[in-house]
């Protein structure tokens, strides 16, 4: 996906140089072939057939790239986010970040209220980076942006401890039942109903993972006047419960009756989240080519922490931790039904496949 347009063309755009006719035609044609975002863009339903409209979008994207690129580079550096290889940054912007920002801005304009974009993705799939980049790009498009994590609506520490006392299998926070769903609905309702001309302060919950020896707890909320576009992200945002028959066979690491009972309980608890998902105007799913990448990514991240002199988990502890979440909501069971239109419960509006190197390799709607 990232290699169809020569880097030199993007470099010319960033420098503000005029493209040759051949380079411009290549840019327009390749952008049209790679553009999945037009299907989400309600203002331009026929972009695939309209070369003139595509050319206009490409021109807008070129200007946005030139304006935002320096700030994006500086912000990624500030957050110690590295794109590997670095040469992938410009194609990543062109094929992924820029068109998504344009699509979100267009959809929000058409909707004439706060647009709530759901984002499902595990660690290493690029949720944080995407939120940082969208915040910059949407400012250049004249839109305000706010990111909220599923983590931010965790139940209070004391309430999660009581929950664990009754359900010992809930070793760590994260699975369905550990969140304050009513709080999430209240916040999204307030954000959706806000009046841009007469904004009222909205308390946005925030969560600190470092409190209580890593168990975490909610902290003072962030006071916001809302935003044009809200990104609501998390590892199972928008996920739909499965029929009980899906758990008939054991799927590693679900290897015992106790594991299966835990999986069935988590699946049943997903029904409580369905009213929360109703607030999503759209859902993007970031899915690794192989779900086991998440274990490899977590091991690599912990090893970097330890190498930097910080505390981190051993490989065995990380494996236990990741497998705990696989037991709760197994990717092999849930993800195909999320992204495959052959399943009645499929609900992803946009699917982005992530490679071993954390880069998107396929985008489809």
Helix coverage percent: 40-55%
The CATH superfamily of the largest domain appears as P-loop containing nucleotide triphosphate hydrolases
Distance between the termini: 15 Å
CATH class category name of the largest domain: Alpha Beta
Order of helices and strands: HHHHEHEHHEEEHHEHHHEE
CATH T-level topology of the largest domain? Rossmann fold
Largest sheet: 6 strands, mixed
Number of domains: 2
Question: How would you portray this structure in words?
Answer:
Helices cover 45% and strands 13% of the residues. The strands form 2 sheets. The protein has a 6-stranded mixed β-sheet, with helices on both faces. It has a two-stranded antiparallel sheet with strand order 3-4. It folds into 2 domains: 99 residues, no CATH class; 252 residues, P-loop containing nucleotide triphosphate hydrolases (Rossmann fold), CATH 3.40.50. It has 12 helices and 8 strands. It has 365 residues and is α/β, with parallel strands linked by helices.
List the helices and strands and how they pair.
Elements: H1 7-15, H2 21-34, H3 51-78, H4 89-111, E1 115-120, H5 127-140, E2 145-149, H6 157-166, H7 181-193, E3 202-208, E4 217-224, E5 229-234, H8 257-269, H9 274-277, E6 282-288, H10 293-307, H11 315-328, H12 331-339, E7 350-354, E8 360-364
Parallel strand pairs: 1-5, 1-6, 2-5, 6-7
Antiparallel strand pairs: 3-4, 7-8
